[in-house]
Amino acid sequence: MSDYHQHAGTFRIGGEIEINRLGYGGMQLTGQGVWGDAPDRDNAKKVLRAAVEAGVNFIDTADSYGPHTNETLIADALSPYPKDLLIATKGGFERTGPNQWRVNGHPEHIRQAIDGSLKRLKKDVIDLWQLHRVDSRFPVEETLGPVVDAVKAGKIRYVGLSEVDVNQVKQAEKTIPIVSVQNLYNLGNRRWEDVLDYTLARGMAFIPWYPLASGPEKLKHKISGIAEKHQATTAQIALAWLLQRAPNILLIPGTSSLKHLEENLQGGDIRLSEADFKALS
């Protein structure tokens, strides 16, 4: 596979753990509706191992993927883990069925989520634990109470948030240091532009989920022209644009296909001209 990571560059999570900016998201390695185990578990393990062999050292998962099956799969495929591999997970959702997601920020649920993830991932420490969603039923400091305890106990190293606005990040920072934010962001959806700018100014990582979306119809013609010029796919151009958008962006495109994995990783090789970047922006 392509030695993509030297081109994509690196970022230091929490200013300490250096990782390659082009990572991998595990959500696709579940059943339909992010429910149940990977339909082809052997292939799923091959994809995870191929990603790590190609230089990926940042993998994102969550206790709600499956639920629980994704974390177990990652452990089965990759444990004992390479020393430089950072596995990030998330907690704060309950699952009742395919495509069913219920936010649960109750401190006891969060406590159980952390301990469950440690067990399933076969890890003593979670390098990056992220609150999957803020639950409006509880003050965020209450929800994060067990996270503070877990950090003090050495169970969690760093803490991140997901799908939050700037005020929610600031509120959480009063309780615990925040090193990353994972929000929906891609070529076609720039809703969280202000959050990206805030994380950049604060030295936090910004992790777009759904990074491969290539945007509204009006962008399609521009993207296809630029992709043709680079002999690339539209997905690769979408990833290349994100990598150039800000140096704190970490990408976690997911796939259950070895071919698509290689294509995604090669997206890190593409350098857009200033004109192309502006045309897409």
From TrEMBL:
Keywords: Oxidoreductase. It holds the Pfam family Aldo_ket_red. The keyword Transferase does not apply. It comes from the Bacteria. Signal peptide: none annotated. One of its GO terms (molecular function) is oxidoreductase activity. The keyword Nucleus does not apply. GO terms for cellular component: cytoplasm. Residues 21-280 form the NADP-dependent oxidoreductase domain. This is Aryl-alcohol dehydrogenase-like predicted oxidoreductase. InterPro entries: AKR (IPR020471), Aldo-Keto_reductase (IPR050791), NAD(P)_OxRdtase_dom_sf (IPR036812), NADP_OxRdtase_dom (IPR023210). The lineage of its organism: Bacteria, Pseudomonadati, Bacteroidota, Cytophagia, Cytophagales. It comes from Dyadobacter jiangsuensis.
